[in-house]
Structures are given as C-alpha cells and as structure tokens.
Amino acid sequence: MVYGGFLPCSMSDSNTTEFTNPSTFILLDTAHVWISIPFCTMYVIAILGNFTILFIVKTELSLHGPMYYFLCMLAVTDLVLSTSTLPKMLAIFWFNSKEINFSACLTQMYFIHCFVVMESGIFVAMALDRYVAVCNPLRHSTILTNHVVAKIGLAIVLRGSMLVLPYPFLARQWPYCRTNIIPHSYCEHIAVVKLACTDIRISSYYGLFVAFLMTCLDVFCIAMSYTQILRAIFSLPTKDTRLKTFGTCSSHLCVILIFYIPSLFSFLMHRFGHNLALHFHIIIANLYLLVPPMLNPIIYGVSTKQIRDRLLQLFTHKRT
User: Fold this and answer.
1) What pLDDT shows up at residue 137?
2) Is the predicted pLDDT of residue 20 greater than 50, yes or no?
3) DSSP for 155-202, written as a single string
4) 15 phi and psi, to 5 degrees?
5) Which of 46, 61, 128, 278 is the most buried (most CB within 10 A)?
6) pLDDT tens sequence across 282-311
7) How far apart are CA 290 and CA 41, in angstroms?
8) Among the residues of the chain, which ranges form H helices?
C-alpha cells in the first residue's frame, strides 16, 4: 500500500524509523535560533531591493531597454527564490513548524531548482547584452529589440521549466521507507531522493547533468562573451574610456561571481562534504539562496547611474 508517495519496506526493515505521518517530510534545522535574525533581515532587504528595482524600471521610461528588462527578470527570479524558502525556514526557527506535505515538498523542490536554472540563463542573456553594447554599440538597439528580448526571456523560462520537471516526477516514483527526516531546512533535490530505499542513480545522474549544463555551459558562454568584451575594452584609445566601459560591466561580473561561487560550493559540499558538520551544510545551503537575492539589487542600485539617480530623485521628492 502507498502512503503519500511512501512504500513500506520488507519485514527485515522493520527497525527503521516509524512515521507519525508518512504523507509528510520533517525538515531539520540544527542551527541556533539566533541565525533566524540575520536570515530574516536578508529576506527583508531582498524583498525591498528587488521590488524597488522593478518599480524604478517600470516608472522610468529611459530605463526601458534590454539591460533593464533582463535586470527585472533577475529581480523576479530572486523574489521567487527567496520566497520559496525563507517563510518556511523562519517558521521552523520561530514556531518549530518542521512538517511539510510530500506534494508541497516536491513543489518547493521544483520552484527552487527551476528558478536557479532560470537565473543562470538570465546571466547568460545579460552577458550577451553587454557583449553587443560594447562590441557593436551602434547596432545594439536594432539587434536586441523588445521582440528579441521577449524571445530570450521565453527561452530562459522554458529551459528552466523543462530541465527541472523530471526532478519531482522521479522523486515521486521512489519508495521511501527509511526515514522522512530531511537534513535540510528546505526540500533540496538530492537531500530528498537520498531518503529513498531504492537505487536513485537516475535522479543522481540527471541532477549532475543539469548542474553540468547550468554551470559549465552557461559559464562557458559568459566567459566567451567577456573575453570578447575585454578584447574590445583594451583596444579603446584612452584609459578613461576603458575604465568607463569596463564600469558598465563590473556590476554584472559581481553578481555572476556572487551566484556561481556559492552555488558551486554548496553543490560540491552536499555531494562530497560528508565529513562536515550538518549545521554547516544547512547554513551554506541557505546562504546560497539568500545572499544573491539580497546583494543583486544593492550592487545594481549602487553601480548603475540611472537607477542611483532615480532613487535619489525619489528620496529628494519625498523630503520636499
């Protein structure tokens, strides 16, 4: 008999953990409750910052261009990523609400990984935009028209949606009979399927394939774009021009590093860092989903003159 996606094991496995409710998972967070304060602060900053970016781009007509459309896509992705995990995480810390329905867990898993893949695709699109702006500035507006930007955005959404779709479908097929305790504060793919009492190599290999495609292919495309950008920058006649042109790309490079380095570290640590303390795994995995959404709007808000000026106008107008 199947209970909420779980299958009972053989009689020889009768010593395994008894479930109080086999239709649910138990999320585990071994970190101290005080860590919820910086996590909550980061979430509030992420929400305010990304909504501010969306508001400024929407209301300022001069910002209706490819770079800022991609920035809005990034802001929406960051809002979904942080909101997919933080409310439940804070409920664990503050109300000890550790149970999560099996279907809700798979839904959370899908949204987290889907939007991580989308965010990686957005960075590739932003690198393409910078490449065209620097290497072919006179044709930038004719190459990256609104129609082309919309097609790129649709491709990013479809790629993320389709690549991650097998995650919950495969996870639902596995029998779970060992324990329903997930050693995480959210439903991370490998953390969930590792609880299955069957061969999960299909899920594991497919997860590696998606990680390879997202990290290696996307980073390769970004690296190729910036190789051409740097060549174009160093061929400029004056130092001031080179610095000014490089400044338009610096914010993008920062958010790329902030996204990929913790992502790669968390991925490798979860698969190979078996000797590390559990609470260290949990904190790093949480920061990986919290730090980029918090820092991205700050970096773009500080480094992008048009956004910075518009923010100053808003504050000055309010004071007046």
Assistant:
1) 86
2) no
3) HHHHHHHHHHTHHHHHHHHS-B-S--EESSSS--HHHHHTTBSS--HH
4) -85, 0
5) 46
6) 777 788 888 999 999 988 887 777 888 888
7) 10
8) 36-59, 66-95, 102-135, 140-143, 146-164, 166-173, 189-193, 201-212, 218-234, 239-272, 278-303, 305-319
| 113 three-state secondary structure | helix
Of 253, 167, 151, 147, the C-alpha closest to 208 is 167
Q: What is the pLDDT of residue 200?
A: 87
CA distance 231 to 241: 14
Q: pLDDT by residue (tens digit) across 170-182?
A: 988 888 876 788 8
Q: Helix (H, G, I), strand (E, B), or coil: what is residue 8?
A: coil
Place of tokens 């009689």: 11
Secondary structure class of 17 (helix, strand, coil): coil
Contact 134, 245 (CB under 8 A): yes
pTM of the entire predicted model: 0.86
Give the integer Cα–Cα distance in Å for 211 and 225. 21
Q: Shortest CA distance to 117 belongs to which of 48, 45, 165?
A: 165
Of the candidates 249, 230, 238, which has an alpha carbon nearest to the alpha carbon of residue 303? Answer: 249
CB neighbours (10 Å) of residue 221?
A: 18
319: exposed, middle or buried (C-beta count within 10 Å: 0-12, 13-18, 19+)? Answer: exposed
Identify the burial level of 13 via C-beta atoms within 10 angstroms of its C-beta, where 0-12 means exposed, 13-18 middle and 19 or more buried: exposed
Residue 49 pLDDT grade (very low, low, confident, very high; cuts 50, 70, 90)? very high
